[in-house]
Amino acid sequence: ARTNQGLVALSMEFEQRVEERTAELRATQEELKHTNSELLVLTMELEDRVAQRTEELTQALAALREVEDRTEFALNATQIGTWELNLADGAIQCSGEFDRIFGYDSPPEWNYPVFLDHVHLPDRDAIHEGYQALLRQQQQDWDFECRIRSRDGQIRWIAAHGRLRRKAQEEPGRLVGVMMEITERVQAESKMRKLTQIYATLSCTNETIVRAANVDELYAHLLEAAMTQGQFAWAWIALVDPATQRLEPYVPPGSLEPMAEFRCNIDPALDPHCPAARSIRENQVIVVRDFAVE
User: What is the CB neighbour count within 10 angstroms for residue 110?
Assistant: First the structure.
């Protein structure tokens, strides 16, 4: 009987423990369900935030691309090229307009030495000096105008502006900039300077005609005005001989002796190529760029 009572007591105690454990498991299960519900809510909120952020980033990227497209259109319309020079290795990344300025449809692999090779020889030292100053961290901006030789051999003028970008003071950094061709502007400025010089010469000539006491004084002052006011390196005066139709240079005593050997006839049958004769016959200005040839 005592054994049975003991077994019953053990059985009841075991059942009680099973019930307590079951209750604990049920409580844990409920807690897990609640936790899972919270995780599910958090997951859904996170997914919503990710979707919202993705949409924002997509819109921002689309807006950035639109800005880039507009910028590229504006730069192309104004014929401005963009470039980026890595000062660590000299590599250059550039836009299509940059290539066009140099006359390329299929451009070379640009880097600083290749660019420098395209710079007109008389301008290279000044360009390289500016580049070295950047490497020595002596300046933050690089502004220059120079002549270049395009792919087809033409000499063109360019203007460039670059600004240095560094993440750390000790790193070489990169130069970001723009470039445009200014050949027409330079030619227009040169033409304007020449016209200004010519007008100054003509103004001085008018005064000389009024004040000169004789022909020798007149011609001497005209030559002086051409070289001082007009800033010409050399000037001469010739008169047409009515009998021979030859241009006879005026040679003041002690000056311009080489002109004594000058031979030119305004008759096109006798001298069709002389620029001075052509200028008289055609009543227009003839510009000679290579005196030895023309």
Answer: 20
